[in-house]
Amino acid sequence: MLYHLGNGFRPEIRAKSEGCDVPESAALAHTTDFLHAWYGPPGRPAGPGTNRSATGALLLGDCLEVMARMPSGSIKAVVTSPPYNLRTSSGNGMRDGRGGKWESAALLKGYATHADSMPHAAYVGWQRRCLAEMMRLLRPDGAIFYNHKWRVQNGLLQDRQDILAGFPVRQIIIWHRSGGINFNPGYYLPNYEVIYLIAKKDFTLAPKANALGTVWRIGQQTRTPHPAPFPPDLVRNCLAAVEEGPILDPFIGSGTTGLVADERGLDWIGIDISPDYLDTAAARIAAARREM
After folding, report:
1. Which residues are within 8 A (CB) of 67 and not within 5 positions of it... i.e. 6 or more apart?
2. Does the pLDDT value for residue 225 go beyond 60?
3. In CATH, what number is assigned to the domain containing residue 280?
4. I need a labelling partner for 167 at 20 to 30 A (CA). Which of 50, 134, 177, 194 fits?
5. Cβ atoms of residues 248 and 78 within 8 Å
6. What percentage of the chain's residues is helix, strand, coil (to nearest 5)?
7. Tell me: the pLDDT tens digits for 111-168?
8. Domain that holds residue 101
């Protein structure tokens, strides 16, 4: 089942799915209840070989506001890639009009509802608040897979430690992309991004997941309406470490995290501030489900 909730989280907004009409207050009273109210208690298996499909929720709103209404300790894993604030870049990738790695230089204009050009201190503060909320939502055995991009700003490496300082970063995974376009005579072509594994104390990888190593060679995703989509294989690698849900993506964009969670039979929640992106996500996930 796929739930697509409306904007604003006002009391009169209701969740609708395949004949189900549920007050929003009931749907968000408890994340686990929301995901399992109609399909059995938490922990009931989903996916191939079971009699229940994964349950997904697409929630429209500011991720900080939405996460603040979710209960602590209710999420097994977060897989997400926030806006990178690229339009403040001092490097060639944005300034010469080529827009970095993204198809048709889409990020030159930012996102549908986010300009991607916050003052740096404001951006860091925003991302730290987002990470703090994600940590609050995690179970004691939970983890965050936080994809971000290092860059050179004014001739010096910006490695995002100002965002990550104080959070329990256990490991850094290198996403080796298939290429890059940010040509600058002052430094080598950046053809990688990083995934921070931010883990609570009791988190362990699922069996055999550690064999994936810490360098993942995966090409970037193209041909979607979103300017910076997650490659499905990147999410597959993250979720290979997780045997149960719920999974959360507070910047779900075109829906790849939900799509892959569905493949693995994991319940999931996706948040985005753009109704257009959520419509795209709902259409992609519905199409994938028809093919399953």
Report:
1. 130, 133, 134, 136, 137, 250, 271
2. no
3. 3.40.50.150
4. 177
5. yes
6. 30, 25, 45
7. 445 555 678 889 999 999 999 999 999 999 999 999 998 877 778 887 888 999 999 9
8. 2-291
pTM, to two decimals: 0.78
Which burial class, exposed, middle or buried, applies to 51 when counting CB atoms under 10 A from its CB (0-12, 13-18, 19+)? exposed
Q: What is the number of domains present in the chain?
A: 1
* Phi, psi torsion values for 244, nearest 5 degrees: -150, 165
| Sheet with 138-148, edge to edge strand ranges | 20-23, 14-17, 2-4, 56-60, 268-272, 247-249, 75-80, 138-148, 192-199, 169-176, 215-217
**Quick one: which of 13, 4, 11, 19 has its CA closest to 55?**
4
The answer to whether 264 touches 44, Cβ cutoff 8 Å, is: no
**Tokens for 178?**
């298939």
